[in-house]
Structures are given as C-alpha cells and as structure tokens.
Specification:
By secondary structure, the chain is mostly beta strands. The protein contains one helix and 46 strands. It folds into two domains: 3-22 and 372-565, Sandwich (Jelly Rolls), CATH 2.60.120; 71-350, Neuraminidase.
Amino acid sequence: MTALRFAGTIALVSLVGLLVLASTAQVVRPASADSVAASPLSTQAQAGTSDLIYQWTNVTGSSGPSSRIGAMMAYDATDGYVLLFGGENTTSHVFLDDTWTYHAGVWTNITSTAGTPPPARDNGAMTWDAYDGYVLLYGGYSSSSDTWLSDTWSFVGGVWTELFPTTSPGYNGQVYGVEMTYDAADQCVVFYGGSGSSATTWEFSGGEWSQVTTTGTPPPAYYGSGMDYDAAIGAVVHFGGWQGGNNFNSTTSTFVGGAWTTASPTSSPTPRCCTALAYLPSLGADVLFSGQNLSIGTSPHPLSDTWLYQDGNWVRIHPVESPPVFGSSPQGVQNPMVYDAADGYLLLLAPNGTSTWTFTASPAHYTITTNEYTAAYEGDVPFGEISKISADWNVAPVTCQPDLAGPQIAATDLTMQGTGGAAFAVLQALCAQGATTPAYSAIALFPTGSGRVLALTVSAGDKIAATISFDSSTGKVKVAIDDLTTHQDASASRHASGFVPTFAGWVIGVGGVGLAEFSTPIKYTNAEVVDQGTTIRLSELSSLTELVMVDSSGYVLAQPSPLAASGTAFDVSWVAST
C-alpha cells in the first residue's frame, strides 16, 4: 500500500474533526511516504482469506449433553444431523454410553430409542461412511475393562448395530480423538493408528476392514493425532500427536491413493496432541482448534488457538472468542469437531461445561470502536492523473450515543488527492453532545485549504450522487453533491494552482473524534474515476484497490479485499461500540 492511501485517511480524520468546530476547516496535507508505518494485518484480515470474518459462536441451548471429554461425533448424512456418542464425564469420570443428535441448534437425547448401544467408552473413532451409508464407530477406551476396544459399530436410521468384520485394526489401532475419516476420492473410510513401528493404515468399506500396504512416509505414530478429509486437495490430512513425556509432534501429512506424503508448510501450529480438526467446505480449508501440550513443566497446558490449513500452508487466525478448553488434565479440547452440513458450520461440544460452539467463515462485517478507528475504501488509479471521481450512495441512518463525552460524527465521502493537496465531497452526520438524533450536512473541501457547507438538506434514506471534478487546463476543482430523492443539487468550485490529483478514494467513517453509529450498511453504487480520459469502474480497479481500516494515526489494523469483480458497487457494513 502506498503512503498516499494512508494519507487520504489521515487527512479526513483531521478535516472532519475540525468541521465540528467550523465549516472552514483547513486541509491537512498528505503525509510523506516516510511518515506512515504499516502494522501486521489484523485478526479480521489474514493474507489470502482477508474478505472473511472467522467466528466462534456459543450456541448453547437450554439443555444438551452433560460435560464430557473424549466424546465421539460424526455427521449422519442420511438422517441430516450430527450424532454424538459417549465420552467421560468431567466431574464423576464415569464413562458414558448415551446417544445424542444435534440439528438446527437443538440437542436431543435419543438413547432410549437408539437400540442396544456400544459399551461405554471415550476416545473412539467415528465418521460418516458414505460408501456404506451409515455412521461408523470403531474402538475407544473402556474403563470397565481397562482396555482399548476393537469393536465396530454402525448407526443408521437412528439405531446402533454391532458389525462383525473378519478382521480389524485391533489394539495397535488404538485412537485418541479422531483418526478415522471418509476418503471421498477412494470411497472408503481411512484409519491410521497405533504406536511406534506398529502403526498401520486400514480401510473400511462393504462392512469389512482391510490393511493397506502404503507407499511414501507415514506420519509419526503418535497418540492423539488429528485427521480429516480435505476435499479441496482431494487428500486425507493428518496432523500432530503425542508419544509420551514432552514428546509432541507438529508434522503434517497427506494420504492419497495409498501413498503418505510429508507436507512442508511454511508455518505450522505448535506441537500438540488431542486437537480438533475438521474440514469446512465453504472455506475450502481444514480448521484446527486447541489441543494439548505439556511442554511447560509437567502441568497440563491446553491450547486455545485456531488455525487453517489451505493451499498447503497453515495460517493462524484470531477469532474474537474461542471455546473454553479443559485445563485439569492433559487432554486439550478432547471432543472432536465435525462439519454440520445441514446447518452449514463446524460444531464443537466444549469439554469444560456443556457449552456448544459453532465455527463459521462469513463475509466481512467490520466492528469499529468508537473514537478510535476510521475505515476507508481507497485506490490508486493506473495512469496517475485524475479528472473525476463519482459515486452514488444511500444516506444511512445514524444513531447518536448521548452518553459519550463531546460531539460525534459519521461521515461518508469521496476524495481526490495528489500533489498540492486534496479535495473532498463530504456528507456528515453530526451529533451534538447529549443529542439523540444527528444533523446532516453536505460539505465541499478544496486543495486550497478552504471549505464550504453546501445548501443541501438531506435525510436518512435519501439517495446521494456526488462528484469531484478537476480541469487541469484551468486548475479548477468542482465539488457537487445532489440529493436524488428530493431533487436538490448543490456545488462549489475553487481554483487550485499546482494541484495534480493521482489518487481517488471512497471513504467511510472518521477517527480522532467520537464516532456515531451507522445503523445500516453504506452502499456505494456507480463508483468510478476518470483517469487521463479513461473511465474506470471498481471491477477494473480490483487489483489496485482495497478496503483499509486504520486508526487515527494511520496505523493499519485491517486490510480486507472483498471487492474483486464487484462492478461499480460495494457495501461497507459496520457498527460502532463504546
């Protein structure tokens, strides 16, 4: 990003702050290239995925499964719900054999109608078997027999049925968490587990287990790995595990067509076991949450970070909230995470308590903190000399916050900047201190440092058309703002000697003063610039423009880019908070 992009926002911050006191505010010149330093991208704008907001949401209802660790979960595609079985109660440490379903935010206990259940256990492997058309359960730890089980069960039509394959992975196939997944490419369930040199790869289809003679380099045979199927790359993904003591692992491996391959991501989650790992189709990425790492002395160290595995690399993301993790034993998140296809999100039952959490990736909705941030959509044009910038937009209702000290402002405008200053077409809503409703006004600001309040009365809901034009032959700048709803128009002109505009921006918000709340999104339409006689729309600027969110000093907080191929319109949706 160039310095001028920051400068445009900084200039607006100063200008509108001064407009609170007088309509003849002096234009603050753009900052120099050396005066603005960029920070790392914020949690809402990770590289490669910057048009999305990642969110954990607590959707706990009035009732649900009791607090537990080591539960088994899978999505039942035939019946259209998430299935949960068993686990270990976190308080009594009793092993459970209850069966629950989850759909549309509601947990239902179906134990009494699910037939004879599998024996109580924790840490079994469970997945949807698309080839056979049922949920498949294998193994797990039984406290009553103090052994790792090697039984195989199906769940279909709401009923458990034990299967009796001629062979199975056996004790050496013990699992901890989810290490079994359906491989859509090979149309079978893939299982990997064991310890040391006894780790093996198995497949299940047609009611039978068969050991696979694999090629390549299998993952380290560690306890508590995570495994799922990544549809974007057409491969099973395997991560991490534990081999006792402080011996944790962070190896990422893939399995395709009978071959194991060790991946080489440029970054990776820290070594851990017992993580939750699941594929989110809407994102085209594997999502990893939490896990356990005992490397800090001998005390349990549950992790609470969230990562994405996409295009062969791990990227850490930073949702505002995260599910609670279990800190009283070395077992991390200790419940699997599954994709709930009916509801369109990842689902996780938190172990510490009975809270249910979902994970989603949705189009960016920006939350701006009052009196701290400003947001702007800005873009350099390709040729370097601008003669016009224009756009239409809706006048969003503005909510004043009378409990804040001092006045508040919500501003929407265009800007044209370059050598010799900047011009603005500003529509501002000003809330006087203690006011409950704003006063709207239209203001023209010029590179000469002069400003003028335009004779235009606007109201929330009106449609506005604004234009800034520059005639290089005369050095004249004209700012025009029309209310298309009331059919009013107003304009002002100034001569600006030495002004050479090279930057165009569509700006929303103001920092450095109290920020009033935009009650609905701002939508710009017909947004375009004329650069050396060529009319350029947003879709043509998509590789050169971006939405930036900076604080009042010009420090970059977020850099999402949701506007590619958006034609001539875009939304900025935000709310203010104290």
